[in-house]
Every structure is written in C-alpha cells, then in structure tokens.
Model the fold of this input.
Amino acid sequence: MSALLETHDLTVSYGGLHANSNVNIKVEKGKLTGLIGPNGAGKTTFIDAITGFTNVSSGRAEFRGQDLSGESAAGRARNGLVRTFQSLELFEDLTVWDNLIVMAETTYWWSFLADIIRPNRKVGVEEQAQWALDLLGLGDLKDRLTFDLSHGQRKLVSVARGLAARPELLLLDEPAAGLDTVESQQLGSHLREILNRDITLFLIDHDMGLVLSVCDYIYVLDFGKIIAEGTPDEVRKNPEVIKAYLGETAGEIQAQEGAAVRQQGGN
Ligand SMILES: Nc1ncnc2c1ncn2[C@@H]1O[C@H](COP(=O)(O)OP(=O)(O)O)[C@@H](O)[C@H]1O
Ligand SMILES: [Mg+2]
Done:
C-alpha cells in the first residue's frame, strides 16, 4: 500500500540555494511523522512545496498516490492537505470561534462532496469547528478575541484552525515554538488524540523533547538534505544527527534516558 504522502527527489531551489535537495519522505496514514533540523535546514520550504506555497524545481510529491504538480494551494487544501504556519496567521480581531468557522467554511463544500464518498465524515461547518475546539480543549475560549489570548493558547487555536478544515493530513510548522515545557507536553498529548480521529499528522518542530516523544517516525534535514530517518530511538542514537543537530543537547537527552553519553570529540 502506498503512503498517504510521498515525495520523490523533491528539490526546491531559490537561485543557487537548494533549500530542499532530493528529499524523499513518506508519511504513512494514521501515523505521526516528524521532520527536525536546524534553523534554515529547509523544513518550512518542504511544507511550502507540499502545500503549493512554493514551486518545486524538480522531483515531485504525491498525495494519495496522485501527483500534486500543477494543483493550486487551495485545491490541495480542499483535497485534505492542510497546513499551519510558523508565524501565527490568525485573524486577531475575530473570536476563536470565528477563526475556526472561517477555516471550516473554506473547505466545507469540498467536504460536502466528499461525504458522498466517505459518509461517516458527514458534518456541517459548525460541527467541524466545535469538534476542532473540543479536541484541543479550547471550549472555554470560544468567544474570546484571539488578540487577548496567551501565546500558548494562540498556538493551540492555530492547530485547531487547521483541524477545522477537516484535513486528511495536517502539516504543522513549529506548533510548539515559544511554548513552555508543560504547554508543549499538553500539545503532544493533543496531537496523539488527533491521530486517533483519523487525521494523519506531519510535525516540524525545534522542541526535541516533543518530537522524540510523540512521533512514530522522524526524518532529519540538514542543509536541505535528509541525513537520517528512523524511529525516535534510532534517530536519537544516530551519530550524524548528534553531530548535525542535537549538538550539546544530545548529551542531555541521552543522560535523561540513562544512556551513556557518547563522546564525539571536538563538538
Ligand atoms: N522564499 C524564499 N526565497 C529565498 N530563499 C528562501 C525562501 N524561503 C526560504 N529560503 C531560504 O531557504 C533556506 C531554508 O529555509 P526554511 O525552509 O525557512 O528553513 P527552516 O524552516 O528549516 O528554518 C534558508 O536558507 C532560507 O533563507
Ligand atoms: Mg521554518
């Protein structure tokens, strides 16, 4: 069976810079797949390319086995491929509820048609928004202006907004950025709950603790190239990863696990 999302030598060039270079990633349905890498590694570019926000220079991406080339960003979203943004793109002067409704409406007519194919997913715009709100535990904040919320709350609203579009695959660009440890753990458990609701997730984050603890499978990007992939355990122990990305925190993470700290020398 083919993966829900699969890229084949996906390359994105900005002038002479290969922001993504022959990237091959598979996102299996029902799994939480992660992408980590240092700042500037090309993580956001990857999501941009998949969701139609930037041009692919060569290679391709397939969603449900179909080539995405030539499909607009809006068309991809209607087809169930939805993203969140690294910088919060909430409507500041709308309530949490209205932010969700706007998103739910943009994909509603598509989902109305899809309901003929997948009748078990039949819901209206309001149910869609309410469902997303409940899943992230945001019911109490429904009528608040997003402007008035804390950073952590806004990050959750941003995830809920993506969910309100009722995606099949939701790509999250650093949803834990700026969250404290407790908020980040809460987000992690919300993400696992979302997976149980028939939505596949792709997570980009800097928060190593979060990525290692919630993902089923992880890819590591460095200078636009995939340098490692595997389960959290495999990635955590990979010397390439430790050298390229984990750096000083690697010792910390391994110590936490009770593992011997590998001496890399000249780190
Ligand atoms: N629209 C763009 N035009 C030119 N260069 C870009 C553009 N977007 C990203 N880049 C460059 O591509 C590289 C990867 O960026 P990005 O995908 O944002 O990395 P990350 O999300 O991993 O921090 C960086 O060197 C960045 O400056
Ligand atoms: Mg980024």
Notes: The chain has a mean pLDDT of 85. The chain has two domains: 1-80+169-267, 89-166. Residues 43-44, 86 surround magnesium ion (ligand 2) (CB under 6 Å). DSSP finds nine helices and eleven strands in the chain.
